[in-house]
Amino acid sequence: MKKNNGSGAPALKPQAKTAIKWAVFAVFAVFMYASSTSGGASPKALLLFPFAAAVAVFESEIPSAVLGSVSGLLLDVSLGKLTGFTALLMCLFCAGISALFARLLRKNIVNYLAVFSAAGGIYLYLDYYFYYKIWGYEGYRLVLTHRLIPSALKTLAWSLPVFGAVYVIERLCGSSRKPKLEEQDKNIDRV
After folding, report:
1. For residue 80, what is the DSSP state?
2. Which residue blocks in 81-148 are alpha helix, DSSP H?
3. What ranges do the domains of the chain cover?
4. Is the pLDDT of residue 176 over 60?
5. Which of 78, 141, 188, 189 is the 20 to 30 A CA-CA neighbour of 61?
6. Residue 10: is its pLDDT beyond 90?
7. Torsions phi, psi of 3, nearest 5?
8. Are 20 and 132 within 8 A, CB to CB?
């Protein structure tokens, strides 16, 4: 094993770092699920949504989609909704967020908030439309103003500390791979 720079402790292998990171993510997700099912103030923040989106910023598409669908299933159970509705949406959102940050956007808090706000707005509209408006229940606008919008605002407010926690976990347990630069080829004519 290699030694760390001056600390004397052996360095962890990348597989061990990945296992520790996902174990911490699992504990974090269970804590957020427990907070969404516990009693207290209503409406609640949907903490699993910003958590899955924050992890999607740093992970590739497949793990992000799997985490999004598992988080969506947990949200479906905790909210008492049709099983699979939130799971499908979060699977698509997390895969899309991961692809955006891998290919187009920089990994920072401003881009995360912009993308998360857009995804949260789409989820809010689809939830409102398919669960309340389409059926024409009496007082469906009250559900929007007294339940859905306050929940969305709480979720947006909690997205900052959740992103910070995921960022710290990624920095501490993330892989230490660095891009390898190729050497300059002297046989190529450069203009």
Report:
1. T
2. 85-103, 109-131, 140-143
3. 14-166
4. no
5. 78
6. no
7. -95, 150
8. no
Phi and psi dihedrals of 45, rounded to 5? Answer: -80, 140
List the one residue out of 76, 70, 69 whose CA is nearest residue 46.
76
- Please name the residues in contact with 19: beta carbons below 8 A apart, sequence gap of 6 or more: none
Its pTM stands at: 0.83
SS3 assignment, position 122:
helix
- Reduced to 3 states (helix: H, G, I; strand: E, B; else coil), residue 185 is coil
Q: What is the pLDDT of residues 85-120, one digit of tens each?
A: 999 999 999 999 999 999 999 999 999 999 999 999
Neighbours of 31 (CB within 10 A): 12
Question: Any alpha helices (H) in the chain, and if so which ranges?
Answer: 14-37, 48-58, 61-79, 85-103, 109-131, 140-143, 149-173
Percent of the chain with pLDDT over 90: 54
What's the CA gap between 191 and 189, in Å, rounded? Answer: 7
| Three-state secondary-structure class, residue 168 | helix
CA 114, 62, 68, 47 dihedral sign is negative
pLDDT given for residue 8 in this prediction:
61
Tokens encoding 133: 């408006």
Tokens encoding 152: 């969305």
What is the rounded distance in angstroms from the CA atom of residue 40 to the CA atom of residue 74?
19
| Amino acid 16: pLDDT | 85
Q: What is the pLDDT at residue 157? A: 93
The tokens for 16 are 């061990």
